[in-house]
Amino acid sequence: MNMLTDIEVEKTIGKSMNTEQTYKMIGKDVSVFYSEKRALFDVNLNIRENTVTALIGPSGCGKSTFLRTLNRMNDTIEGCRVTGNITLDGGDIYRPSLDVVELRARVGMVFQKPNPFPKSIYENVSYGPRIHGLATSKAQLDEIVEKSLIRAGLWNEVKDRLLEPGTGLSGGQQQRLCIARAVAVSPEVILMDEPCSALDPIATAKVEELIHELRENFTIVIVTHSMQQAARVSQRTAMFHLGYLVEENDTDKMFTNPDDQRTQDYIMGRFG
Description:
By secondary structure, the chain is α/β, with parallel strands linked by helices. The protein contains 11 helices and 10 strands. The strands form 2 sheets. The protein has a 6-stranded mixed beta sheet, with helices on both faces. The chain starts with 5 loop residues before the first helix and ends in a 5-residue tail after the last helix.
């Protein structure tokens, strides 16, 4: 009899939770405290598999805080405490036995400002697969690097300069390099915290096009201040305000006929 691994069991549980729509991650009654200050209040939000979910809302509303709970980045902040329950394929990501390094390989992150390592383009992409033991030979590593750069829409621009520093690329190229670095370890979920806020319109368009392509293989959660970007790239949108989840629905409905007046006011630019 073949024994299922923990991850395989979690995936089976996750898929059985909803026969019509698979939820990759489920957040239930999630609250976040920074020392005595409460930043999130009992958030319930399900993240659908192979879907782009946009988190919107005014500055300080809790959307980035919630994003960081999904791969336990808040663990790095002194005095931060998370309550409630978050599962990935049915497995509690805050259970004491969880390997956080493994979690962050499964749930990758792309930050607001491009942050390539001060290494070559090749080493930026190969670093993760190498430390996670995903390649047993140089040829396998080469293949992962090429495939990741192709997925990030960057291969044709850098294939002849792989040994040059990643920091020498343009801002938009650096951000796509960071995306290539994230996908190189074959994550299941990619978190993006305002990935285009430091980019020009042309670079932004390339990243948005990339997000569309990545959705075929990854579940994506993106925080954005741009209503236009949320409308362009996402299928689901969640609106946060003052630490509360106001509502979550199909993006088309959220932007044309939201259920909550606060969502309508924010989208129309009346506050935020």
